[in-house]
Amino acid sequence: HNLDRYTTWPMFARDIGPDSGSALSTQNLYGVHPFYMCIEADGKAHGVFILNSNAQEVVTGPGPHLQYRTIGGRIDMAFFPGPTPEEVVNQYLQHIGFPFLPAYWALGYQLCRWGYGSLDAMKTVISRNQAAGIPLDVPYADIDYMNHYEDFTEGDNWSGFPAYTQQLHAQGLHLIVIFDPAVEVDYASFQRGITADASFIEWARDDQVPHSIQDQYPMAKNTRVMLGNVWPERNTAFPDFLDTKSNTNDWWAGEFAQFHKTEQLASAKLSCPISGPDSTLERPPYPTQAVYQRDGEYLFSKTLCMLGKTARRSRNFYDTKNLYGWSEARATYQAIPQVTGKRSAVISRSTFPSSGRYGGHWLGDNTARWEDLQTSVIGVMEFNMFGIPYVGSDICGFNGVSNEELCLRWHQFGAFSPFSRDHNSEGMPDQDPAVWPSVATAAKIALGFRYYYLPYLYSLHYNAARYGHTGQSTVHAYFPSDTWYSLQPETYGQKMFAGFNDVNAPLSSLTPVFVRGGFILPRQAANTTTTASRLNPFEVLITVKTNAASSGDLYYDGGDDLIPNDDIEQHPRVHWQFSFTSSIVGGVFSGSCETCSTAVKPPTLDTIEILGYPSAPNFSGFKLDGSSVTLDMSKSSYEASTQKLIVSSKNFISLMALKKKFTLSFSNN
């Protein structure tokens, strides 16, 4: 933030996409995160969290100073002393809760669009990308699949959807479908909710109910349910996911379980009081810049009336509106295991502190322009700080018409976002990778690299879920003083000088990728699905740092098996911690299984690659736990010019739980 000027930042959850094209956009977006980190002049960091769910705003200005305002609720402040940025985030996550661990397949590439006119249109897009060899794990169905945009239904043009889902599963793919929370009040899902005594957001009193609208719907006629307008053709009710009983969440889970039971006039607009005694919450004395920056609007614009009742009538919507996306994500996160018996991933556009415990986040309805590609880098970093490491932008841009070069570059970047998905809007031209041969080639290269290092990315998510670490780091053309190695094919293994470097980024090659010395990264050969790649033997990349050991870890589990009681400490898994040291006489690579479950059967570790190893080893002198091993010399080599060592052998090192520890030692020639 620029603290040389006065800037007001309103926070009030609103359905509006980011405006990266403006020089300075301060509009309130989908979520609310009243947390900031400050880095002082001496490099030390601290953080501050203000827990409040009402409309609020922050003013930043010279001094520097920060002014905080809220128009309701309570102020619960927490301070995090750091002193490093990573420690600030870790302390914050200990306060709000650690992130969830997504299913392994959810780290694969995902392809979505709003505007499939039919199931056949979706099949065409998925098939052409598979034919082009694009790695793909998750096709999406947006709200097009619904019958008139009614949740838990299928439209006439989507006949055969269940069979196609099974076909995708047989290919090792997984399907994600998009749901909106609003439920039309004249079909079976709503009736089942009423029967189950599910709670919906309601009017505060009977005399506030607009019977000219309400009485059109027999199911809602004698209720206080506040009827709104979203996607369905007629009026909708909004589930009260803050229900103090379990009824609403139980009904929501039941609707997922009954997905394939489909059932089937114009809607009237919701009107909230803007004068008289009932307008107090709609027009508070100071409605914040969330209202002032938009002429003719109120706090209830694009949402429900603030006087609505939530938490089974114990709270005003005025106080809980910012919690709605959080509460829906929590309800859906709890529902999926009941339906599938497996772990999955929930993606929410609206978030609040601790949303990362229940799902990930996409950065909203961005636009197909270079500015949005640039700001998506910032967004991914920010949401890691907010405790939501499973995050990414809509690759190629959601709104507007994308183009070949932008889509190519965005795929090169998007392959390195924890959540990697191409998505665009209704009425826009197709922008999946197979549309352009050059984009297909670039996507195959970038996603192939991503899939190669998915074991590393999954291990990062495990460390975030168990220890509260961040999951994303980005290095631009400036290299801090350290040892850096290139992973680009043209300069693979080459050391980079500290400071600014000119880095080639051709359209037809891998995105510039560099790894710091002193680390050990696990990987597996890439296939076009994570289902297949998880079966391949493991490899590790070791990067040598002068006069220092290298370290890293590998996390492996069933991929999508449930975590007992949401407690990762009870989860069957293997978690290996690796170390590598070297000297003028040789090297030692060792592993210790920090947590080992016999129920988990990981592949063997077959290949070890070391960058920056200064001497040729004696290939006949390798010993594993004191016993000589025979290497596959067709895959083992040493290049003196690049100081790159590769050793490989089939079924080289067992990573099964019974092993617990291993030591691989070798001497130099």
UniProtKB/TrEMBL annotation:
CDD domains: GH31_MGAM_SI_GAA, GH31_N. Residues 99-460 form the Glycoside hydrolase family 31 TIM barrel domain. It comes from Caenorhabditis latens. Belongs to the glycosyl hydrolase 31 family. This is Galactose mutarotase N-terminal barrel domain-containing protein. The keyword rRNA-binding does not apply. GO terms for biological process: carbohydrate metabolic process. Residues 471-521 form the Glycosyl hydrolase family 31 C-terminal domain. The keyword Ribosomal protein does not apply. InterPro entries: Gal_mutarotase_sf_dom, GH, Glyco_hydro_31_C, Glyco_hydro_31_TIM, Glyco_hydro_b.
